[in-house]
User: Which sequence fits this backbone?
């Protein structure tokens, strides 16, 4: 398997070079957000308020980690099902979000937004939260801490493994694999 | 009458919550290792390898296998000759969950109401299923159930005229529809018969079976085997990235039902099939 190393935040130039099925290692800053955090972000956008995180060129990782044990940066941190975020995602992509990491297929609306605004959707391996926690070198809660595991965390990751599912050319890695 | 202290139940439940979230049962480990040997595509082999590495890291570092440490499903088999002292059973269990999820650094994934959605911050309440059985023992099983696979599960009330091929179609469609959401390779728990409520419990309980065990009725043994073969021909593969291992096992549990009914429940379980039991 060919490996592409990319940095986050990402831009159009990096995204243009990524194809469905590519294996990538991500280094840089990514943000966690799941159900309730998405709901709150979209509410803020709709009310034309400032967001607590800078989504321009950002990658969001759909996850809710376990609490860190003493001496740990973060607990287990694998992906959650992306489709639950589908209803909110096109709004965030229009706002400047460039990448998403999760698991499972996306809706037509999300796929259209990915193509139109040159965004990218990655999957990482569900149920490997212990292994993925080793790729997180720094973690800081940045918003909605009252939501507990659903808060937004800023993560610094090194060589975080993922696979490109939906590229900007309309390819879908999951659909390609079905017999 | 044998006396069991509520505080002993709490302490057992606490430990089971922590242990089940950190250590994968051996039968699941073996099934994953077998899948690594049978997969041929590099991507499928890679995924299974990562899953194996993950359970090794979790056990070594004593951290959860998956960040979704689940809602605690607790099965109780209470001997009718047991008398619980110094407290009540359900409070004792919920206290155990509360302590386990705190002391084990497990994620608190329960909200107090489906609409207001405020986190209870201690992972209670547990989902408790109690059976009264003969004897003076108490068996406690904790199955932390993540939502990825749970959300893709299905319940249908069919007509008695339903053919076995229709049953197969429902199961296979459930697996296809779940795709990567359910974190394949999955375990497919099927309940057949009973009523609207009991059929789902049959499906859920089947997930506690050992991989390699089969239904005692040869008709259902055959159906389990056929379904597993057909599911693994779908090509969904580990994590939906393509491959031969879409499911590790298919378990069917059947029960008598009404002359007019044929309920079916398909409860999906991700590869992190965590459960641990203890007999007091």
Assistant:
């Amino acid at each position: 398997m060919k490996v592409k190393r990319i940095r986050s935040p990402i831009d159009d130039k990096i995204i243009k070079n990524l194809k469905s099925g590519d294996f990538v290692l991500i280094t840089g800053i990514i943000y966690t957000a799941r159900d309730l955090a998405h709901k709150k972000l979209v509410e803020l956008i709709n009310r034309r308020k400032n967001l607590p995180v800078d989504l321009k060129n950002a990658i969001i990782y759909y996850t809710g980690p376990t609490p860190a044990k003493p001496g740990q940066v973060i607990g287990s941190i694998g992906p959650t099902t992306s489709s639950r975020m589908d209803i909110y995602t096109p709004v965030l992509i229009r706002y400047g979000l460039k990448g998403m990491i999760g698991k499972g297929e996306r809706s037509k609306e999300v796929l259209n937004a990915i193509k139109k605004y040159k965004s990218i959707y990655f999957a990482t391996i569900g149920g490997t939260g212990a292994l993925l926690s080793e790729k997180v070198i720094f973690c800081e809660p940045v918003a909605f801490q009252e939501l507990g595991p659903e808060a937004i965390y800023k993560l610094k990751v090194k060589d975080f493994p993922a696979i490109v599912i939906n590229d900007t050319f309309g390819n879908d890695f999951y659909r390609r694999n079905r017999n | 009458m044998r006396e069991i202290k509520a505080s002993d139940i709490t302490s057992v439940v606490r430990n089971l919550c922590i242990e089940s979230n950190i250590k994968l049962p051996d039968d699941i480990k073996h099934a994953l290792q077998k899948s690594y040997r049978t997969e041929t595509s590099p991507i499928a082999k890679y995924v299974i390898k990562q899953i194996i590495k993950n359970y090794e890291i979790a056990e070594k570092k004593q951290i959860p296998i998956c960040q979704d440490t689940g809602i605690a499903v607790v099965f109780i088999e209470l001997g009718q000759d047991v008398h619980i002292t110094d407290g009540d059973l359900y409070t004792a269990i919920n206290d155990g969950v509360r302590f386990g999820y705190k002391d084990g650094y497990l994620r608190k994934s329960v909200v107090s109401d489906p609409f207001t959605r405020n986190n209870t911050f201690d992972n209670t309440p547990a989902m408790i299923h109690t059976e009264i059985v003969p004897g003076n023992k108490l068996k406690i099983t904790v199955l932390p159930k993540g939502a990825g696979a749970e959300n893709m599960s299905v319940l249908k009330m069919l007509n008695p005229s339903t053919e076995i091929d229709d049953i197969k179609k429902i199961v296979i469609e459930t697996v296809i529809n779940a795709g990567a959401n359910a974190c394949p390779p999955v375990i497919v728990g099927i309940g057949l018969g009973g009523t609207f409520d009991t059929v789902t419990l049959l499906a859920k309980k089947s997930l506690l079976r050992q991989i390699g065990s089969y239904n005692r009725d040869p008709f259902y043994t055959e159906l389990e085997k056929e379904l597993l073969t057909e599911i693994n021909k779908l090509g969904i593969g580990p994590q939906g990235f393509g491959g031969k291992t879409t499911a590790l096992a298919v378990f069917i549990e059947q029960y008598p039902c009404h002359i007019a009914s044929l309920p079916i429940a398909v409860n999906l379980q991700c590869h992190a099939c965590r459960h641990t039991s203890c007999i007091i």
